[in-house]
Amino acid sequence: MTQSHSTNSVAIVTGASRGFGRAVTAALLDRGWTVVGDARRTQDLETTAQELNSARLITLAGDVTDVAHRDALVGAAVDAGPLRLLVNNASRLGPSPQPVLADYPAGELRAVYNTNLFAPLALIQAALPALTGNAGVIVNLTSDAAVEPYPGWGGYGSSKAALDQLSAVLAAEVAAVPVYAFDPGDMRTEMHQAAFPGEDISDRAEPESVVPALLHLLDTQPAAGRYRAADLLAGARQ
Asked: Over the stretch 132-141, which tens digit does the pLDDT of each residue have?
């Protein structure tokens, strides 16, 4: 998926108003993509749309766990042109501070899984016909918490581990559409700050500094699988 191929192409980016989703949206717009972006916070999404100031940015406020909202996202993308990219970026951390699993409220855990696992799959199912027909790509945002047993990260981490396996199985089942689990590493975002309340996270990477790794993944399209941003950035520099 080269930069020239992106012209007149359409991407769906969930969680596009802040953090990594906003940075990805801005980068895709710079490459000529039309982006359908969503967020739960209407005001944040409106502010991002004003700041990015692009006629190729289509914003739809809503929650990815809502079927009508997911249908609206896919409908808007298909109407805008060939849908060639789905970035499942929207995520839910869970309670802050994060509880240990022994004390994790069942309702909160369901909410985490609904956003981090079930909604991405449902959006993939809705978008897959268009992505298949347009030689599209699926990127699911994962985390190192999916593979490392960090105390307090059992809810979020296990949901991302399930998303990793979902991505791997989907890739084996749908050969026509590359499916990537993309681990951006620690970033200086609102969600990451919520995971470490009261701590200084200024040493974490800015989301914009991680975007080149995702662009390299899209440009080179290696075999479907799980990729770390740090490894991709190292490969891009070689």
From this structure: 999 999 999 9
